[in-house]
Every structure is written in structure tokens, then in C-alpha cells.
Specification:
The structure holds 2 protein chains of 2 kinds. Chain A contains 4 helices and 1 strand. Chain A is 62% helix and 3% strand. The mean pLDDT of chain A is 92. The mean pLDDT of chain B is 96. By secondary structure, chain B is mainly alpha-helical. In chain B, strand 2 and strand 3 form a beta hairpin. Classes of the chains: A mainly alpha, B mainly alpha. Chains A and B meet through helix 1, helix 2, strand 1 and helix 3 of A and helix 1, helix 2, strand 1 and helix 3 of B. Strand 1 of chain A pairs antiparallel with strand 1 of chain B.
Chain lengths: 111, 108
């Protein structure tokens, strides 16, 4: 059986991607700024998350049974990147949805 | 830092991303209502997941590095802060990069 944390992270990512593609349709997946942001977020995750999960003195401690067991880089459980993708993408798509109508380029296209 | 280490780490994230608001004109802090509409659902959804995972013993927090202040249903205050700070950093990054790309395109 797939352990709970990687399973939950992948499910969250799938739900967020479906939410964007099937329902909210902000178009972020077609924006270069979105993909570059994801790269920057992942890059900064390495020191921050690395600090949080540093063995032997982590801030957050995981039951080894819920993890995939792959820790890379440093001591970061690999599934944290999937989790972060889901969380940050969710925030960005909600941000875009909340800003509909305020973007000059989009407003111009609509009229 | 001791018990404030987790909070200090999050504070560091806020301070480090603050220049994006001004230097790259991300304008996330200056649109608090729009930011709240993006961040509050993240806090709710990921907060519920977190509370369930903590209750099931999937993960827990080293008492040396957290204040011990918890909100019902057993969520450390640091985790609530995490679900606000990380999306906020993400939004600042996204808006800053979008502005940079738009400016680069305008110059061409």
C-alpha cells in the first residue's frame, strides 16, 4: 500500500490540477510566470524545508510508516515537493480567480 | 531561539519575500482582500488535513522548537502561520515574476 503522506500529496495535487482545468480555468498552466514561480518556490523550499526536517533535530517529525522513504535533498521527504506544488498552486489559482476583472489585459480582452 | 524556532523560520520567510512587494511591485500585501480570498481556503483545507494527520499520529512537532500553543482541534499555532506564510510567499513570487516578464517584454 502507498503510505499516507505521498498518497495524500499526490491526491491533493490531482484535485488542484482538476480544479484548475475543469472548473476555475484561470489559465495559470499556460503562463510562464507560474512555472517559473514553481521553480523558485522549490528552490527556496530546500533551505526552509531542509531546516524543518533536518535529522537528527527536526522541527516536524514524521512517522516513518507514512513516508515514501525517499528523502532528497538533505532530509526532505520527496513528497513534500508534491505537497508544496498542491498548496502553492491552489493559492495562485484562488488569487487569479479573486482578481478576475481587475487585470487590465484580461478586462480589455473581454470587451 | 528554542521554542520560537519554527515561528522564527516563518518570520524569516516573510522578511525575505517582503522586498518582492516593493522592489518588484508584487502588490500582494497591498491587496489584502484578494490575498485573503486566496489564502483563507488554503488555511482551511490544509489545516483540516493537518489536524487529521496530527490526530492520527502521522506527524508531530518537536516540543523544543514550538511554543506549545494549540488551537482546536489540536493545531499548533505555528502550523496556522505556515498555511498563511507559504501561500503568501508563493503569491509574492508569482506576481513579482509576472511583472518582471511583462517589463522584459515591454522593453523588447
Amino acid at each position: 500500500m502507498v503510505p499516507a503522506y505521498p498518497l495524500g500529496s499526490v491526491l491533493a495535487a490531482v484535485v488542484v490540477v482538476c480544479l484548475e482545468i475543469l472548473w476555475v480555468r484561470t489559465g495559470i498552466f499556460r503562463q510562464r510566470a507560474y512555472w517559473l514561480s514553481m521553480l523558485v518556490v522549490f528552490a527556496f523550499m530546500v533551505p526552509v524545508d531542509g531546516w524543518m526536517s533536518k535529522v537528527p533535530n527536526p522541527i516536524v517529525v514524521y512517522d516513518p510508516d507514512v513516508l515514501s522513504g525517499v528523502r532528497f535533498p538533505i532530509d526532505i521527504p520527496l513528497e513534500e515537493f508534491v505537497y508544496a506544488f498542491a498548496m502553492v498552486t491552489f493559492a495562485i489559482l484562488l488569487w487569479e480567480r479573486a482578481g478576475r476583472g481587475s487585470h487590465p489585459a484580461l478586462a480589455a480582452r473581454r470587451t | 531561539m528554542g521554542k520560537y524556532e519554527y515561528l522564527a523560520l516563518l518570520a524569516g520567510c516573510v522578511v525575505l519575500t517582503l522586498p518582492l512587494e516593493f522592489v518588484f511591485r508584487a502588490r500582494v500585501w497591498r491587496r489584502p482582500r484578494r490575498a485573503a480570498r486566496a489564502i483563507v481556503p488554503v488555511v482551511v483545507v490544509f489545516g483540516v488535513w493537518d489536524a487529521v494527520a496530527i490526530a492520527l499520529g502521522h506527524w508531530w512537532f518537536n516540543p523544543r522548537f514550538v511554543t506549545g500553543i494549540e488551537l482546536p482541534p489540536g493545531l499548533p499555532v505555528e502550523e496556522i502561520a505556515f498555511f498563511v506564510v507559504i501561500p503568501l510567499c508563493g503569491l509574492l513570487t508569482f506576481e513579482a515574476i509576472r511583472n518582471l516578464l511583462a517589463r522584459a517584454q515591454a522593453r523588447r
